[in-house]
């Protein structure tokens, strides 16, 4: 982390606690314990991020788009791509991080620090939500889990369009439940946040929107006015305006791709193939979000449904025993939030059967809330149940501790912004007039390198770097590729009859310099 990164990190660390406290005095009464967790959470999410930041194809692509607006005034109507070919998210994420790219003079670590800060506020938000849904003790436990969860920490350290979804989804359900309890002034914000969340990660946000619609129809609509419903709908629909304009300008590219994904059987796999792997994948992912790694060899599907049955029986029994009507409604909201997406994913056969872990990003939040609710009940019970709850939290903390330490060390391994900057600085320092650069990352999309070379040449006043063109003298930058035959064919044809002058390694990035013999 360079000097500028450290100064910004320290300033944010000093000021955000004071700002949150001022907001707290006028809005929510929050104990000091929660703000300490927020501070610790931001430290774990932001420390050494300038070195350890994962900056690859997606991040380079986004940075190039934002650079186009900053330097050339090119606005954008769409955002990043989705897992479905031809479907683009809205531009919310680009505009969200745009000011921080500008303030950081193009340094990707600055918008990443902002996202880490925004994510650390999730600790406060989940406390407020747990308190509203159940009680203050459940909210405090949920905040503790989210603060130290290695999964949440790792996810919050990503410069990704999905990262804002965690705090946004917590705010959505916080405002939704407040509306259910009679504070209907928050309901239009639910519509706005749901619309914006659909521009962060489509699969997660779609189910969030579905849960909000079902819960609102059953419990909330009868408490709000027609004017509030119309305002909510307008705020929700207005978030789609940029994508609608883009769709009309480009022969309905997005709408045709969405329709094709649902009606075209060519991109679907069989339900049998889905059930062979997906139930166990979801179960392992949920358990892993607690910091516990599980490995099974047999009966994965049976184990998953045993777990689901157990959770339903235990929580269903607690649900029936509740005397507080609001607490029942809170449990129902968490049930819907967890099980509607979880079960729906077991029947989704599209996108050629591909299923990525980020589809499940918002599911660990209701999972944490359920666990927090149960632990709060244990803490209210007998001495033995209190010991069990404390033991669980101790195991959780120790299981996640080892994973957290790696974020606090300087990055001298693997692939990150640290190694990328080393590579780019080395090549620019050694590059002679007429020499060119060949870049080959595993996906053959060198956007991260293109952005950093472009950024640094402009800052240093150097000529623009030329990529992947024929030249007698050139640098080759590549990373390990799992498709060895494909890589070797490209590499051998490039360096054939060339003389290797020098080779340097920065983490997993290999840089070689060649000239004609």
UniProtKB/TrEMBL annotation:
Membrane topology (UniProt): Multi-pass membrane protein
The keyword ATP-binding is assigned to this record: no
GO BP, sorted A to Z: lipopolysaccharide biosynthetic process
Predominant localisation class: membrane
Top-level division of the source organism's lineage: Bacteria
Subcellular location(s) per record: Cell membrane
UniProt keyword list: Cell membrane, Glycosyltransferase, Membrane, Transferase, Transmembrane, Transmembrane helix
InterPro entries found in the cross-reference section: LipidA_mod_glycosyltrf_83 (IPR050297), RgtA/B/C-like (IPR038731)
Transmembrane segments annotated in the record for this chain: 30-47, 83-103, 110-127, 139-155, 162-180, 202-221, 228-246, 302-319, 331-348, 354-375, 387-406
GO CC entries: plasma membrane
GO molecular function: pentosyltransferase activity
Residue ranges annotated for the Glycosyltransferase RgtA/B/C/D-like domain, each copy included: 91-245
Name this protein carries in UniProt: Glycosyltransferase RgtA/B/C/D-like domain-containing protein
Organism the protein comes from: Candidatus Beckwithbacteria bacterium CG10_big_fil_rev_8_21_14_0_10_34_10
């Amino acid at each position: 982390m360079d000097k500028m990164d450290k100064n910004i990190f320290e300033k944010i660390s000093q000021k955000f606690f004071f700002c949150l406290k001022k907001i707290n005095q006028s809005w929510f009464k929050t104990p000091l314990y929660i703000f300490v967790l927020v501070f610790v959470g931001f430290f774990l999410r932001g420390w050494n991020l300038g070195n350890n930041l994962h900056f690859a194809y997606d991040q380079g692509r986004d940075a190039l788009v934002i650079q186009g607006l900053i330097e050339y005034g090119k606005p954008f109507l769409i955002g990043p791509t989705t897992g479905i070919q031809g479907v683009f998210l809205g531009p919310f994420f680009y505009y969200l991080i745009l000011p921080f790219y500008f303030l950081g003079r193009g340094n990707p670590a600055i918008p990443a620090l902002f996202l880490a800060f925004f994510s650390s506020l999730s600790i406060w938000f989940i406390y407020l939500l747990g308190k509203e849904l159940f009680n203050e003790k459940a909210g405090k436990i949920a905040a503790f889990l989210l603060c130290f969860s290695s999964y949440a920490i790792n996810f919050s350290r990503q410069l990704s369009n999905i990262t804002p979804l965690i705090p946004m989804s917590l705010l959505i359900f916080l405002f939704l439940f407040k509306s259910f309890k009679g504070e209907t002034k928050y309901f239009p914000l639910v519509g706005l946040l749901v619309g914006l969340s659909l521009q962060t990660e489509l699969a997660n946000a779609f189910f969030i929107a579905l849960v909000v619609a079902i819960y609102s129809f059953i419990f909330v609509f009868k408490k709000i006015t027609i004017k509030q419903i119309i305002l909510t709908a307008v705020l929700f629909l207005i978030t789609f305006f940029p994508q609608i304009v883009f769709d009309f300008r480009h022969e309905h590219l997005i709408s045709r791709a969405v329709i094709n994904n649902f009606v075209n059987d060519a991109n679907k796999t069989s339900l049998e193939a889905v059930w062979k792997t997906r139930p166990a994948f979801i179960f392992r992912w949920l358990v892993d979000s607690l910091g516990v790694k599980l490995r099974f060899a047999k009966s994965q599907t049976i184990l998953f449904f045993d777990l689901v049955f157990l959770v339903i029986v235990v929580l269903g029994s607690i649900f029936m025993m509740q005397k507080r009507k609001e607490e029942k409604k809170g449990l129902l909201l968490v049930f819907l939030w967890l099980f509607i997406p979880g079960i729906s994913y077991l029947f989704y056969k599209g996108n050629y059967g591909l299923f990525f872990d980020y589809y499940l990003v918002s599911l660990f939040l209701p999972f944490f809330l359920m666990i927090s609710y149960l632990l709060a009940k244990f803490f209210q019970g007998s001495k033995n149940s209190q010991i069990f709850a404390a033991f669980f939290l101790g195991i959780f903390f120790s299981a996640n501790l080892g994973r957290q330490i790696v974020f606090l060390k300087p990055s001298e391994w693997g692939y990150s912004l640290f190694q990328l900057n080393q590579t780019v600085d080395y090549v620019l320092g050694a590059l002679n007039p007429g020499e060119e650069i060949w870049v080959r990352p595993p996906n053959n999309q060198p956007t991260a390198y293109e952005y950093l070379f472009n950024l640094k040449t402009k800052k240093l006043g150097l000529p623009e770097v030329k990529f992947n063109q024929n030249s007698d003298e050139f640098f080759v930058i590549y990373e390990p590729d799992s498709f060895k035959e494909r890589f070797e064919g490209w590499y051998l044809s490039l360096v054939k009859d060339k003389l290797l002058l020098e080779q340097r390694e920065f983490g997993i990035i290999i840089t070689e310099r060649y000239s004609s013999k």
